[in-house]
C-alpha cells in the first residue's frame, strides 16, 4: 500500500507540467504588467537550466520519500486505516540545535573569511540550516502554545480544541510563510545595511530647481531662445539661465608660468547670479570676481581675473599663428564675492558679469545652462520641459536633479527581493487555501452536525479564522525573531551596523493580510458544507 501511495504521489509530475505551462504562458505577458512603476521583460524571467533540472528531479523524489516515511507506522486495510504506534511528544533539542548550528557556521565564517570575505558555501549552509531549523521548530511552538489555551467564546474554544487535537497540519501549512518571511527580513536587513554603499548624496537642492538643461556648444542667441522658451513652457515656475565661456590672460607667459592662467566668465542677470554667488547689491553692468574656499584655486582665478586688465574671450588655440583675439577688460570696480552652491550642488568660481557689462555676442565658444523649477501640481511638467528642449535643440542635455542618486543595479535587486518575497508568500497563501478547503471537506459531516445542533454560522466562520490565525501568529513571531537574528549575523559578516530593525513590519503585515484573504475565500465553501445535505451518507 505504501508503494501504491508513493505511486500516487508521482502525480507531482503533473503539477510540475501544469506549473511549467503556466510559467511559460505568463512569462510572455509579464512585459505588459506594470504595478507601482515596477515592470519586467520576459527575458528577465529565464530560469537557470541546472536549477530547473534540479527542481524537476527533487519535487517527485521528495514527495515519494515523504510518503514512504510517513506511512511506515500506518496499516491500510479494506476495513480502515490504523496507526500501529503511539503519538509521541515532539522533542525540542534537535529543533533548537539546527538554527543554533546555522548561526554558529555563519559567525565562524565571518571570522575566518579574512581579506577574501566569508566563504560562499559556509554562508549557504548556515542560512539553510537556520531557515530549516525555524521550520522544524514551528510545530513544537504551535503545539506548546495551543496546549495551554482554555475557555473563551465558542469560536475560540472550537478553534483551540481543534488545534489541540491536531496542530501538525496547521503548522505545516504556515511553515512556508515562516521561512519566506524570515529569509526576506534577513535579506532586507542586509541590503538596508549596504544602502549607503549604493546611494550617493548629490548635494542638489530640488527645492530651487528640478531640471538641469545644458548646451555645451552654444551662443548668445541659443541662450536667449532657451530662456524665453522655458519661461513660457507649461508648468515652469522659474528659470535660472546663464551663458559661460573660458577666458585667458593675454600676453606672454612669465618664466614661472607653465600654463596660461584661465578662468570662467559667466554672464547672467542679477537674479540668476544670486543663485550662484553671494553678490549682495547688484545692478545691470556690474561685474564680480568669485572665490571659493579653495585658496589654491582662488589664486589661479586671480592670475587671470585682474580688475582693470584685459581678458581674451577666445581661448581656443591662443598661441597658434592667426589666432583671433577677442579682448574684454574686466572693470576695475569688480568686487570679490564668495560662490554658493547652485541648485545642482556645484560651485562655480571665476568672473561673473551682468549683460550690461559684456556683449554676449563676443562669447566665441560659449555653453548655455538653465536650472528649471517646475510646478509639482502640474501633471507631466517635466515632460513639457523636455519637449521644449527638443524643439530648441535636439542635442540639449536634459537631466532631472535628485538629492540622492541610487545605483540602478542595487535598486533593481532590492525591488526584485521585495517582489519575489511577496510573490512567494502569495503562492504559499494559495497553497494554504487549498489545504484549508481539503480539511473542511474532510470535516463536512462534522460541520453539518454542529449546524444541526444550532451552532451559528458566524461562530463557525470565526473558528476557522482562529484556527488559521493562531498558527500564523506563532509562525510570524518565530519568523521575525529568526529573521532578525539571521539578518544581524549577515550584517555583522560584512562589517556594517544594522540601520533598521523594523524591516519585518511590511512583511509581517503582508503575511497577516494574506491569511485574512485565505480565511475570507474559505467562507463560501464553509457555508455550503454546513447545509443539512452534509448529514447524508451512502
Produce the secondary structure layout.
Blueprint: H1 2-9, H2 12-29, H3 49-70, E1 74-77, E2 80-83, H4 93-112, H5 120-146, H6 154-165, H7 168-193, H8 195-198, E3 199-201, E4 211-218, H9 220-231, E5 236-248, E6 262-267, H10 270-273, E7 277-278, E8 287-291, H11 295-304, E9 310-312, E10 327-329, E11 335-339, E12 350-353, E13 366-374, H12 381-392, E14 397-400, E15 404-406, H13 408-442, H14 444-452, H15 457-493, H16 504-529
Parallel strand pairs: 6-12, 8-11
Antiparallel strand pairs: 1-2, 3-15, 4-13, 4-14, 5-6, 5-13, 7-11, 8-12, 9-10
Overall description:
With 538 residues, this protein is of the alpha+beta class. It folds into three domains: 86 residues, no CATH class; 241 residues, no CATH class; 192 residues, no CATH class. Helices cover 52% and strands 14% of the residues. It has 16 helices and 15 strands. A nine-stranded mixed beta sheet has the order 7-11-8-12-6-5-13-4-14, sandwiched between helices. A hairpin with a 2-residue loop joins strand 1 and strand 2. The longest helix has 37 residues. The chain is elongated, with a radius of gyration of 36 Å. The two termini are 25 Å apart.
